[in-house]
Amino acid sequence: xxxxxxxxxxxxxxxxxxxxxxxxxxxxxxxxxxxxxxxxxxxxxxxxxxxxxxxxxxxxxxxxxxxxxxxxxxxxxxxxxxxxxxxxxxxxxxxxxxxxxxxxxxxxxxxxxxxxxxxxxxxxxxxxxxxxxxxxxxxxxxxxxxxxxxxxxxxxxxxxxxxxxxxxxxxxxxxxxxxxxxxxxxxxxxxxxxxxxxxxxxxxxxxxxxxxxxxxxxxxxxxxxxxxxxxxxxxxxxxxxxxxxxxxxxxxxxxxxxxxxxxxxxxxxxxxxxxxxxxxxxxxxxxxxxxxxxxxxxxxxxxxxxxxxxxxxxxxxxxxxxxxxxxxxxxxxxxxxxxxxxxxxxxxxxxxxxxxxxxxxxxxxxxxxxxxxxxxxxxxxxxxxxxxxxxxxxxxxxxxxxxxxxxxxxxxxxxxxxxxxxxxxxxxxxxxxxxxxxxxxxxxxxxxxxxxxxxxxxxxxxxxxxxxxxxxxxxxxxxxxxxxxxxxxxxxxxxxxxxxxxxxxxxxxxxxxxxxxxxxxxxxxxxxxxxxxxxxxxxxxxxxxxxxxxxxxxxxxxxxxxxxxxxxxxxxxxxxxxxxxxxxxxxxxxxxxxxxxxxxxxxxxxxxxxxxxxxxxxxxxxxxxxxxxxxxxxxxxxxxxxxxxxxxxxxxxxxxxxxxxxxxxxxxxxxxxxxxxxxxxxxxxxxxxxxxxxxxxxxxxxxxxxxxxxxxxxxxxxxxxxxxxxxxxxxxxxxxxxxxxxxxxxxxxxxxxxxxxxxxxxxxxxxxxxxxxxxxxxxxxxxxxxxxxxxxxxxxxxxxxxxxxxxxxxxxxxxxxxxxxxxxxxxxxxxxxxxxxxxxxxxxxxxxxxxxxxxxxxxxxxxxxxxxxxxxxxxxxxxxxxxxxxxxxxxxxxxxxx
Length: 898
Hints:
Elements: H1 12-32, H2 37-60, H3 65-74, E1 75-79, H4 81-85, E2 94-100, H5 105-122, E3 126-131, H6 133-142, H7 144-151, E4 154-158, H8 160-175, H9 179-196, H10 215-229, H11 234-239, H12 245-269, H13 278-287, H14 298-324, H15 329-338, E5 340-342, E6 346-348, E7 352-355, H16 360-364, H17 367-380, E8 383-384, H18 386-396, H19 405-415, H20 421-431, H21 433-437, H22 441-444, H23 458-471, H24 478-485, H25 489-498, H26 509-523, H27 528-539, H28 543-550, H29 556-566, H30 569-584, H31 593-610, H32 615-633, H33 649-656, H34 660-665, H35 668-680, E9 686-693, E10 698-705, H36 713-723, E11 726-735, E12 741-749, H37 758-773, H38 778-784, E13 802-806, E14 814-821, H39 826-836, E15 840-849, E16 852-860, H40 870-890
Helix pairs in contact: 1-2, 1-5, 2-5, 2-12, 6-7, 6-8, 9-10, 10-14, 12-14, 13-14, 17-19, 19-25, 20-23, 23-25, 23-30, 24-30, 25-27, 25-30, 26-27, 28-31, 29-31, 30-31, 32-35, 36-37, 36-38, 36-39, 39-40
């Protein structure tokens, strides 16, 4: 049959390309009119399928009649995968299977080649293969991706009997006699795909199709339904009693929502785009005209809705798989033999817990009995039977929200466990039981924090923190010891559950969380002492990290104030574990060894104080030990306290000129080397030592200079690293009382994938010397290294950064905290601004959390004192905030004016 749209005067591919655009425009018009995702995806698929038929038929009609007859009787063209389902996004691939009998191999291959070429010319991206029935079945048995695509196979052209023969052969040889194998292949392939796309439903930049809870999970449920029961249709599975009506309704709503989001992403990108990035989230929230609330921005409300759908999809899919997974005969026999009863009601199998059918309604209608189930399952380390969980889920909707004393006791027994707690609380949350016990948990459900720091939603972060704390039980560090010595683990775990519950209300989440913790403690009948402990932990859960990472914990005043606030060893242990669990749960790799050491150091110092050791006495004792060790490295005689130093008075003067922080965190051998260099260093010279450390793949640059170069030394060194595209991951800045400078920078050199060669290190050493003595300036360095790449711009929805001034924590210095999103060159711009205000950096703590930096500068003014004048402090704050603002707006252009 000919098509009038293709004339002899028009190139076919022009017509085809026009029709592709018309199909996409049709979808876009439906989107504008408010059509559902399902309607739009169906309309696009129908239009593309009609075009495919036109391309096939146009090419077919150009063949001689004998060949036409040969092909139409021995070949078939099928749409498979998403195309077979009849659901396509605007720029989706078209999945085709060209099927043939052996005798027409060459003729059909030539025909297919022309079709494929025309499809590509039209702007359609094909995923296709040319196979016989035998080839297709063999491929489906070994390649799960092809097999699952075949489940959706549907003939659109050619010999229908051939296509039907393939479908029957596929079902018989791939599915029918190997249901369990195929089921497991589908699940394993999907689990691997999940891992490749983040492994968590609540990751903040999900892939709409492939991340956990995405469209692929709905596909997986259909595929496993087909493997088990011969149908991939959700309604047929519902009618057969394989899945309940509520879950089907939830899946359909989620499918429609996810399809629409995916379609919008495709249209916005003008190409296939399934990754829901932060920028596109902001764009979509604006497109959908979502209005924010006092506690949540529009984008956070958008993503909370998204995660509610994706989380429901993931949970339903996982439940379906658990409930319908085929079991080997031997496994069934083993389970039967090993199952025993408890209380004449419970059936305890090796891997799951169930209730005897006639008692199920009775158990599910009692919160106490349900909690007893969870307590028993947690005790045995097994799961609850999927269909029993479904019954609990239904009952939770109607259960009385009043919590009895017995229910509280059971809940606290669950919270007191050191194993299986994370999994148990997740299941309690999924069934709604946790919300009955702690109603505020509903607020945290899928709650998004739209920033560059967290990787997960509040509820996912919370459960990961619980799971992180569990792992500390087997840790042989001070953290593990602290966890094992905590007596009230139920209070600790309740605090972890509630530590971020105050987010999303538009107020300080620590204060709001403390209020919620107080209400929850009353609801759960905690004793007054326990109530105070819980509120303290929630309110103070950020304080320990703040001190460890952003303050000089060798300062006795800081330690004393913190120890007074904590008050007891048990509270300190709990706060320590809570802090470590919280940081670990932020995202992969966030709780580094460096952070672990800093936190442990603060814990151990504070524990000494709580044990009766005065902080200043303890510090003096440590400094005395360090001093003796340094003397030993310098081959100086060891002197007793009562002995007068005479010949080595220079050593005492130089040693005492360094800050306690430098002396207590620097290895004694390094201190000895620094002192020896400073003692013999001519006033106009600078020593720079660079060393590559293979275990961390970083280079440590150690810089020693006399007082002559102390002014602006810090930011000049930073300019060298920034101009050379190096990432500064930590810095220790030390200026002695006599003006000598001892600075260390740990950097990642992104120009080298593995070991940084010695020649590169030496070149950087030379550049640092020139920069510090003023032989080269920052502008020249930036212009000489034009490969410098500006990082991607940040959306205006992110805060451009903030500056906090702390004039209380240190007696000698004003402390400046700069919290901003990490950009190449940020540290240089900030340090230069500090220098231009006439301030000197005497200590700095540089740290990066994912994309957020918290840089801390201990500064003194021109008179080597802390800034006391209120107007000057305000001026410093405002100037630095303007610097951050200008830098974010202009980025790399700022370097042209350095």
